[in-house]
What does this fold into?
Amino acid sequence: MHVLTVLDHPDPASFSKAIALAFNDGAISAGHTTEFADLHAERFDPRWSLADIEADKLGKVPADIKFEQDRIARADAVAFVFPLFWWGMPAMTKGWVDRVWSWGWAYDQLDDPEVSLQRPRTGVLLVPAGARSDEMDEQGYTSALETAWINGTFGYFGFAKRELVLLNGATGSSTRRQALLERAKIVGAGLSLPVA
Ligand SMILES: Cc1cc2nc3c(=O)[nH]c(=O)nc-3n(C[C@H](O)[C@H](O)[C@H](O)COP(=O)(O)O)c2cc1C
It folds into this structure.
């Protein structure tokens, strides 16, 4: 299968980038073809703008959005890699989602929020987080993110197989980080298509 990894981090030496590469290595080791979208390096503009709205009214798709939609169209699986910021997505990923996975292309809200216009895909979130997992579970953050991203967003995207991999303790020791990198590689190697 073909795997698109979408990375959101401005620092090429970041842990998030290392996670994305480890995941990608795992996917390659399992025989998948891969493609990388490095949103900061590619200078994607995450701002939803008046130009977007006006293009939509004319039934047109801005060139930068078409470019992103074409990469998604080629992919059987999409992986998101971004650091957890304020219990949510950083602005770059949020804007990519807002602008690219648009109404009329990804989903049609008027029919059924859970019926995407897209073919079934596998969707994975690999999210480095500073907090500990027990802390996040106890305070309800883990279930809030599962609800918003797995039940909500990924449903609209038509992801028939959905996984949130929280990489807790990402700012911890090098041993901890190594274990998280291994985990990302295993997730990449274990990817499979949704069962029809
Ligand atoms: C603006 C900002 C907000 C953050 N918010 C959270 C948060 O809500 N929960 C959390 O566990 N970690 C939070 N962190 C910690 C990051 O998730 C952590 O630094 C990151 O995963 C490390 O990966 P990196 O080296 O690739 O940046 C935040 C960090 C920054 C800079």
Notes: The pocket of flavin mononucleotide is lined by residues 9, 14-16, 83-87, 128-131, 170-171 (CB under 6 Å). The longest strand covers residues 159-168.
